[in-house]
Amino acid sequence: ISWTSTDGWKDRRIEKYGPLQLDPATAVLHYAQEIFEGLKAYKHSDGSVWTFRPDRNAARFARSAHRLALPALSVDDFIGSLAALVRTDIAWVPDGEDSSLYLRPFMYASEAFLGVRPALEVEYLVIASPVGPYFSGGVRPVSIYVSEEYHRAGPPGGTGDAKFGGNYAASLLPQREAQEQGFDQVCFLDAATSTYLEELGGMNVFLVMDDGTLHTPELGSILEGITRASVLQLAADRGYQVVERRIPLAEVVSGLESGTVKEFFACGTAAVVTPVGRLAGATFDHEINGGEPGELTMAIRQELTDIQYGRAEDRHSWMRRLA
Ligand code: PMP
């Protein structure tokens, strides 16, 4: 769908996949005025195709658009575009346990103009790709390096709560350096004080404490994950007390030493709920739960995927049929 400041959104269309032609002065190439979303389409055993809480992705996309001075896209256009793309060929949505069609809606400043101001021409597109299980051969706990050197976005008022490519660009170097040291992922601390846990490059984080409470970093400068919101709900349904707060890294490290932190997991659309088996930083290195997936971590993971794949009752009306 194309937008101009004079005509608004128009020209809703489906095109064959192929390269875009961009003027070298296209604004997004210079000032990174763009946003995106990530969702999955799941095939259920009766052949119907569903997605998970797309109203939340639409709302987050609208917030990201506002922050990046991009035009608002209606919820109907957002969800309708996903359905329209999936319906072009539902054979595109793979069958099978833990397989899905990844959907990537995005919006970018397409105007060829080098002045620094919001673009007057914008494009919204959706592309898709079948994806298999994130972990081949079973879920494996990941290792995380906490970076005290780099930040991904900024303090509240920055772009951390927007799904904006610049945040991901800033996470590439820390991610590469962590991988070179043998870690799977980087965890970022708050940009204002480098004291509190924030999130990974593409996942939110949770702690399970020995008193039966679940803790996750509060919103403000992190991405408001849809998996995060769903985990908070599923844990509360099970009777766990859930706490959204500022979590000092020092408290996590001492909790791992003393045993008050029992499980640590990360969550997001791509990897669902992923156990963390090792947390390290410049001055500490701890194994978590003996390097094994935690019990509650795996129970929530199972429950969430059962809802997504239609194997369990959708008691919160999270699923939306696309085809
Ligand atoms: N944090 C960041 C930085 C992310 O990119 C993602 C993935 N969208 C998440 C958290 C998890 O969000 P969600 O559960 O909506 O996929």
TrEMBL record:
Coiled coil: none annotated. The keyword Lipid metabolism does not apply. Its EC number is 2.6.1.42. One of its GO terms (molecular function) is branched-chain-amino-acid transaminase activity. The modification N6-(pyridoxal phosphate)lysine is found at residue 163. Keywords: Amino-acid biosynthesis, Aminotransferase, Branched-chain amino acid biosynthesis, Pyridoxal phosphate, Transferase. It comes from the Bacteria. Pathway: Amino-acid biosynthesis; L-isoleucine biosynthesis; L-isoleucine from 2-oxobutanoate: step 4/4; Amino-acid biosynthesis; L-valine biosynthesis; L-valine from pyruvate: step 4/4; Amino-acid biosynthesis; L-leucine biosynthesis; L-leucine from 3-methyl-2-oxobutanoate: step 4/4. GO terms for biological process: amino acid biosynthetic process; branched-chain amino acid biosynthetic process. It catalyses: L-valine + 2-oxoglutarate = 3-methyl-2-oxobutanoate + L-glutamate; L-isoleucine + 2-oxoglutarate = (S)-3-methyl-2-oxopentanoate + L-glutamate; L-leucine + 2-oxoglutarate = 4-methyl-2-oxopentanoate + L-glutamate. Its cofactor is pyridoxal 5'-phosphate. Belongs to the class-IV pyridoxal-phosphate-dependent aminotransferase family. This is Branched-chain-amino-acid aminotransferase. It comes from Promicromonospora soli.
